[in-house]
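Example record for the data management plan.
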Amino acid sequence: MNGEIRISKLESRKEVVREVRLSATLNISVYRRFVSVSIQVSLVQSSRPYCWKKMKLGVAELSNSELWIYFFGWATGLFYGLYQIYLQTSAYFDNYDNKLELAPGWGWIGRRLDIADVESLVFMPLIYESFPWICVHFLGGQMIKYFFNTSLLCCWFVFISLTYQLFYFGLPTVIFLLVMPFVTCILVPFRSKILLWTVQLSVLLLFGVFGKIEDSWRNLLAVNWQQYYIVVVVFAWNQLRSLSFGLDSIDKYKHVKINGFCKDLLEILAFCLYLPTYFLGQMILFEEFVEGIRRPFEAWTLNKTARTVFDFLRFFFWIKMSEFILHYVYITALRNHIELIRGLDNWACYPFGFWMGLHFFTKYVVFYGISSVIPRAENIVDLPTPRCIARIHLYSDMWKYFDRGLYKFLVRYIYLPSGGAKSALQKFVSSILCFSFIYMWHGIARFIFIWSALNWAGVTIESVAKGIASSKTYVRIEEKYLGPKNTRRFRCLLASPLFIMSAISNFYFFGGEEVGYHFIDRILHDSWKSIMILIFFVYCLCQVSTEFENRDIRKCQRFKSVDKSN
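Corresponding structural encoding:
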């Protein structure tokens, strides 16, 4: 579907038509309805702000003085907590000697660096090592796109990616990582989505179980432990890419000759092996990728060049900023010392949980940010970076705005096809299917199951609350007894305990079972005074997050006004 796609749905008596503007060449016909509960289509591929919210302010505006109280309350709790973590753990780590967690840091600082995070330890060197290859990929691709055709561009993407992988992994690993794209291409002519899902989920389940036999796999693939870690991650990404290709191709499959099969094979290989997003993500849907590589060459301007250079510098700055902080506060190493965590007081323990999340967020801003620069520069797709978790207080928003590629995948291929945009029962079942897939895809482990289950519960509770809040009776009660400003305050207060539940569920993911269980135990056995103080700071976060949402809406309104005037 070319041109502008507009999707709208009337939500309630008090709401207006939501408008979504997708880029002119985005060809996604499956986005049939707007989903307003636990899973929503939330990404607008455009250089403009993401105007996916109500074009009418959903909550009242508060006075600037009140907003400043909330902002300083939240910021004070956050940074005072960081200071307390430093005070209460520095003495322990100063005398702690484990080179697997603390390594010599920058000489001019004179402190050791926290290297306990495995993802950073493995992928940060890979970013630097693969960067020259990605530059070659980019320069060659731009010349081919200018002088030649799409088929040759796909051949170049496959060639440069395979060359680098042969250099980095070796032949056995390259063959292993090519299995799923080849199998998917063979399954497409059967035109059975059930067969495709059955094979893919079976492989995912088997690899989730037997992939834990690390020594055997490492010997088979002839890789070290760092390379094996990367292989596991790439295999997971290729699983999503293969599914995206297969599900998008089955409905429109019409090739009966070998030439059509070879074309499909070339496209899926170019899609799965696309080097800028091959190791780190994000997820690009197959139709987005095809539309992108078929776009004509876009001439380079000074602004485009400056933006590309600035983006790279910005994300490399965040790498160094994160490393600088990890010289002083050993957030990732602390996760491995449960007794030390138990000894923290509330002013350090609760902020420690949130700073685990902020470190995770910063890490993926770097991962997804660096991998998004080249696709944007090549005019293939504009991949947004995760939204800061310090300004998100709802479960659904966390899923929508952190990993947008995974979110789009879930909506397009699981939630909508299973009827999530229809009845309440179908929405309930669809959300279970989505989080079941999330559990399998992230790994068959108990802490992953707990994290997925708690997230599903949180999204479900939020959806029910939204349904109640949009009912006519409830709206009349709020209008009669509270008014707009008090309604906003009341809703933020109700959202605070749900945010705490959301945070603790993520602590299982960030720190493992012991860390997650510790936070639940502390919440259940803390004094009411401590709980009220915690809720106050979380309430400040909810107000700050709500205000950011309002400002995003106003920004979207300004762009809409400009469009109408033009």
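Summary line stored alongside the record: Strands lie at 102-104, 112-114.
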